[in-house]
Amino acid sequence: MVSPSVAAQEAKASNSSDEEDVRALVAQLEALKASYAQEVRRLRELDMQVQAIQARVGGKTAQAMAPASVPPQAAAITAEAAQTAQKPAGTGEGYASSAAEAQQAKEAARRSVDDVKQQQSALFNRRLTLENSVSYARYDRKQLTLNGFLALDAIFLGNIAIENVESDSVTYNFAARWGLNPRLTLNLDVPYLARKTIYQKGGAGGSAAAIAQEETHGTGIGDVTASANYKLFGERGWRPETVLTGGVTAPTGREPYGLDWKVIERDDDDFIRFAVPAKQPTGNGVWQANLGLSAVKTADPAILFANVGYIHSFKRSFDDIDSNPDTINPGEVKLGGSYYFGAGIAFAFNERTSLSISFSDKLSARASTRYKDGKWMKVIGSDANAGTLNLGVTYALTSKATFVSMLGIGLTPDAPDFSLAFKVPYML
């Protein structure tokens, strides 16, 4: 016969074993719940990626897509696992912690790509985009002028003059971009300029210590540009999204030819030593045509972009092309053609902010002028090489509005010393 004390010990041992089994089963259940929840999240992410690729291949706008359907029992387990189970260390690396975060991350990446495309070419999935921008540019040029000759290879006899031109310009630009279809977008850019230029000339009156200075201003509408963007290829595999751009610029601004000049200083023989335009021009005075190609490629987490193009200027006749304010000489002007190219990279910091860095360059050939019934002559010093380093920050204000800031640093003497631009495109 078993004593009561022995029976109690056996019952206690049995209960302890059952509790250990229950704890082990509970731990196993929690691990299975966490694993199942992770697999459901991965299925949802893969489903959204497949739908996004299908929409892009079909040329449709990638809309916010609903997650893959899950049975009610699986949804209940997933919710319970998300609340009770903790993610094991080292698991879930590279995945969002929930389907909402996965969708948010995907929207952020797509928004960053859209912002880059908006600045480089156009967004073809928007019916209408209105853009307001303000830019500021600073120029400062100094030139030493020697009018004389060297005596005994060491002594300069003549006049030494130092010329300095400082220019500040502010441009407001209103742009409208209308998407006709998933491949074609029409654009219209209307700028309004305000310029201030200070001319300084050393050696006034033949004295090296004397400096003459004059300040002139100019405001008005600039040259209006109408253009179109056509998407040649969508992004697929190694191939970037490629867009062809063509446009025409009309000479709606005030041309730099035939402007009234103010004479600041004359020599004894009535030779004009220092004269400046009474008003600053707001355009280049000729019709221009532009043809370019741009490409955007996503390489997670970076976005690569590049562009190249050519600007052709058509010759035009003017009533006066002479810089001498005392004479009027009609003639023709033909600006040199310009090649431009650039490339850069952008990174998305979060769902709202991205940073870009790029280089752009514009090479312009010499201009030519011809007086009436005369021969064409090249204008010395009219060729240019304007290289700029650009740093940009983009911030998504709302789902439809974006704030873009851009700092340009001139790398060559023909480029602005620096420029600063702010844009707010609003997508309807």
From TrEMBL:
Domain of life: Bacteria
Coiled coil: 26-56
Biased composition (Low complexity): 96-106
Record region (Disordered): 1-21, 79-112
Keywords: Coiled coil
Name of the protein in its database record: Transporter
UniProt organism field: Stenotrophomonas humi
